[in-house]
Design brief:
With 138 residues, the protein is mainly β. The chain is built from one helix and eleven strands. Strands 1, 2, 3, 6, 7, 8, 9, 10 and 11 form a nine-stranded antiparallel beta sheet that branches. It has a two-stranded antiparallel sheet with strand order 4-5.
């Protein structure tokens, strides 16, 4: 089985104006959550619980360095889209030769963390699907 490094991951997030911004160099980590949204359909005579897929649930969690030095820094972009009432396109290409997950999302939360003897970071940032179109891999 081949192993791939996430060092080449490409992460873009739309800014407040809707223009994609490359946040790859500010990314510390990312996690793409995919859930089948299972529904229990167990009948009274079934010997075990029975499930079927429901509506899929996709979310993306990031951690970024705190970068306000440019108009395209992660802190600047995220501050600009928090509480936006329009969806923002978020794309994640985990490895250079692979597929890209792309979809319309809203920013759920945005926090800042740090220690007196360390660097500032943006804490866990989560994006949830916004709209009726499911994110897709292409």
């Amino acid at each position: 089985m081949a192993k791939f490094s996430a060092k080449g991951a490409v992460i873009t997030v739309d800014n407040a104006a809707g223009s994609p911004q490359d946040l790859s160099t500010d990314a510390v980590s990312f996690e793409i959550q995919q859930d089948a949204g299972i529904i229990e359909v167990t009948g009274f005579t079934d010997a075990t619980k029975n499930y079927i897929p429901g509506l899929p649930v996709t979310g993306i969690t990031f951690e970024f360095i705190y970068d306000t030095h440019t108009t395209s820094g992660a802190a600047t972009i995220l501050n600009g889209i928090l509480n936006s009432n329009t969806s923002k396109t978020v794309t994640v290409k985990p490895e250079s030769a692979g597929k890209t997950l792309s979809g319309e999302f809203c920013l759920d939360n945005f926090g800042v963390k740090g220690t007196p003897d360390g660097s500032l970071q943006i804490g866990t940032v989560h994006f949830s699907v916004m709209g009726t179109t499911a994110p897709a891999w292409a």
